[in-house]
Sequence to fold (425 residues):
Amino acid sequence: MKKSILFFFLMYVLLSCSNSSIQAFEEAGQNTLGYGAITLPTDYPEEKDTLRLSELVDTLFYVRLEHPGLTDDCQVNYLDSLILVYDNQAVMAFDVDGKLLYQLPEKLGCLDVLPEGASFYLYNFRDRIIKKYGFDGKERATIRLGSEIDTYGRNFVALSDTLFAISMMNVGYNPYELYFVNGEGKIIHRVKNREPYQPPIDVRVHHTIWHHRLFRNEDGCRYYPSYSDTLYEVRKDATIHPVMVENKISKIPLKYRLEYSGQDFNQFVQEMIDKGWNSVRHFETSRFHLVEYKIGGYSQMLSNYLVYDKNNKKLYRTNSQLTSALKEASLLHFGIFNDYDGGLAFAPSSQSGDYLVMVNASGQQGKYNTRPKTLYEEGRMNGGKSYQVRSGVCKSSSHRQRLMDFFRDFDEKKHSMLMIVKPKK
Fold:
């Protein structure tokens, strides 16, 4: 009898502590007790504003690309002997020194590289075509999809040569949020939309600036449903399984993600600020979960970060605010504080395996984001006043010297900068 009571008591405690995680697993059609998802409840303790880039980084280096004006909207894949960049207008292949090898005029799509082999896939969401290319830039195969899949953005991964995952931007009315497609373009599995909603007839989707729902890390592929609390692993058996449940950040409710015709935009943005509703995207390396978030989907808002260290189970929160920076200091250093070489703050926009990539000065610097050298050497003018953008804090003079040497031959009219970080294992 005592054993029975003890058993039921332990089960009660187990289920109570795992409640939020269970809900996320049930949404995916799975049972939480068989998997080890990381759960961050609202009261999980934080190490606030203490994280510095040197605590994250194992290796940091820069690449000078022979192509001007790239922004952080592009996808970057850093490979052993090739760098693939896709900016929604063309696929550009560079060698590891940044020399342009070739361009493929491909518009409106998403690029993914299988870790094995010597090929990459491009999904064109306008024409509903998946193309396979060799690393030499030659087309190898074409897969045509049916009209049922109607989506756009950074929402595609290749799980193998014959299995692909494609996610849908959720505006409420679509019945499914994720599709699995085989090598013939046939849908073999669907994940139901867990947030169905019937919007009014005249509706425009506003929160679409981050197309980062499907991405690849060193261990495999991940799926983050827009504004969800849960990050999922995407498996080769055409299933998804939660790997992280994050309840620290308040997400925008579905019906508020839609900007209705006639709605005052400033009022819309103010509502996001007042209620603390954020849009979110994820990066995950072998050691860190990095959650980037900003108020609403308003593109001029600065990104902030939660960084969870899987080794010591500590959670760090970094904050950047334009108003406080202008009032309190002469330093517009937005992102993760760069004490590695004293350069620009780090704000990743792409992930390639275990590497995180920032393009030029990142969107955190607004219209100046394609001018990393000017920002490093001269800073930024705002309201007639000059503000420093580099941190000026450096733990190694050799690191600083390498960055200064890099900028010596850098021409913003001819080049783009990649800041590539390999986080600690």
Helices lie at 2-17, 19-27, 53-56, 265-275, 322-328, 372-378, 397-408.
